[in-house]
Structures are given as C-alpha cells and as structure tokens.
Amino acid sequence: MTDLATNKKAFFDYEILEKFEAGLKLTGQEVKSVKNGHISLKGAYITFHNNKAWLTNAHISKYQPAGPMPDYDPTANREILLHKKELRHLQTKTMEKGLTIVPLSVYTKLRFVKVQIGVGRGKKLHDKRETIKKRDNERELQRTLKN
Known about the structure:
Its main location: cytoplasm. The chain has 4 helices and 9 strands; from the N terminus they run E-H-E-H-E-E-E-E-E-H-E-E-H.
C-alpha cells in the first residue's frame, strides 16, 4: 500500500468521526499521473448526485507522455466507487447538521487506486489552537529527546 497523497488540512480543519475506503474511477492516463504522485487533495470534497459519490475539486495533473489533450480538465469530478449500503449511510450523514465528507488520502492497494474518505465535523477556532499546542509540545519533546 503506497500513499500517493494526503489531505493534511482535513485533519486540521475537521474532527474525523468515521473513515471509509473507496475506489476511484479514473482514465488510464489519470492513473499513471496519480501513481507518479501528481495529485493534490487540497480543497477537495465529496458530493452526491444521482445516487453516486463524486470527488470534487481534486487536482490530477495531465500525464505528460500522453501527448496533447486540449480538452483535459485537471479538476474534473471523478466518481467514487462505494457499496450501496455505504453510499446510503454517507448520504444520510451529509444531511446531519455540521457533518461533511472529505477525502483524507489517496493510495494504491495492489493495482487499484483507492481513496480514504472521512466523515468530519468542523473544528472551532479554540480546537484548532489546542491542536497547534499539542503539535508544538510534541515537537519540543522530540527535540529534547534527540539532544
């Protein structure tokens, strides 16, 4: 399992309540680009249309050896493959106030490209400050242990 991209901002902005693994429907040249690490989840989120889940606003760069592709859109919506039961569960979670679905990471599992999605509740400003304090304390502890 090779980690290709992570959404660090999601862990900072949201308290992750549940995690799910899902497939990602991509074209051939997009798969090659993703496996080379040319994907960004910054600002990406999950939407639902026609009983399907879609990865919105994720940036997958064009695969350079594929040649000219004038109509390629790097931020196009990409379908997320989930079981029907998981899809219904996630759709009901989006109806609840304060909950959102965000992509956490993209990785390979065997030959497939998978995305880990999470149900998150937005953090308040004071929660974010606590996270920063904890991170700084951990960093100081590591520095003292190293020296």
